[in-house]
Design goal:
three-stranded antiparallel beta sheet; alpha+beta; globular
Length: 78
């Protein structure tokens, strides 16, 4: 994913009202569901997600394969 798409997509998804969960799929096959808007931050093409257990996941735009809205909102996939 390019840096501009990464930033624009995450900005858009984080600001949705009401917030709706989405999934980030990494190129290494790992994926995680963002279920809370303050559970992640991103800047300059790098993101940090804090899982419900508190374990951080660090990712960058180059390592993201896809960002997908939850199954109930497929039309909003990016």
């Amino acid at each position: 994913m390019d840096r501009e798409t990464f930033t624009a997509t995450l900005n858009s998804l984080q600001k949705r009202v009401p917030f709706k969960p989405f999934t980030i799929s990494l190129v290494n096959g790992e994926l995680f569901k963002v279920d809370f808007p303050a559970a992640y931050i991103h800047r300059n093409g790098t993101g940090v997600y804090l899982s419900p257990g508190g374990a951080p996941v660090i990712f960058d735009y180059d390592g993201v394969a896809r960002i997908t809205a939850d199954l109930l909102h497929r039309e909003e996939a990016a």
